[in-house]
Amino acid sequence: MSHKVIVLLAGLAVLLLACDSAQDQPATAASGSTSSPTSVAPRTPAPTNARVFIVTPANGDTVSSPVVVQFGLEGLNVAPAGTYEPETGHHHLLIDTQLPAVDLPIPADENHIHFGKGQTETVIELTPGPHTLQLLVGDGNHVPHQQPIASETITITVE
Ligand SMILES: [Cu+2]
Q1: How far apart are the CA of 115 and the centre of ligand 1, in A?
Q2: Local structure of 46: helix, strand or coil
Q3: Sites in the chain below the pLDDT cut of 70
Q4: Residue-range domains of the chain with CATH
Q5: Distance from the alpha carbon of residue 146 to the mean position of ligand 1, in angstroms
Q6: In the chain, which end has fewer C-beta atoms inside a 10 angstrom radius, N or C?
Q7: 42: CA distance to ligand 1 center in Å?
Q8: For residues 132 and 96, what is the distance between their CA atoms, to the nearest angstrom?
Q9: What's the rounded Cα separation, in Å, for the pair 3 and 99?
């Protein structure tokens, strides 16, 4: 058998297989999918009047470490992580970092502290020098609401 014949037969087999599998496909599969990418987490709607803020320290304060940070929240109820009631969320303290992606769960590391038990204040150790603090509320899955509820970023100096 020559190489040409083998290639032809192989091509014919592929065509036949393709026809078979095409017939097995549901009719809707050919029209294409319009679902969103799986990397984006579902978002919880935020009440329009929801507001989060750092009660203390104040922007520009000079403080000594450890630093007491108190969280303020209006228009939303604090609830532990894993709570999926509407208009609830828990605090995340962002230390020396920018807002993370708001359509994904908030990272958990030394720059992104979760308060998944529903805490409304904390005490943090900071090195001497300037530091930024910001609060970001996450839903039961640690994903920011739509729209994200984030405080202003404050800068403090640790002596
Ligand atoms: Cu969280």
Answers
A1: 6
A2: coil
A3: 1-39
A4: 51-158 (2.60.40.10)
A5: 15
A6: N
A7: 15
A8: 5
A9: 61
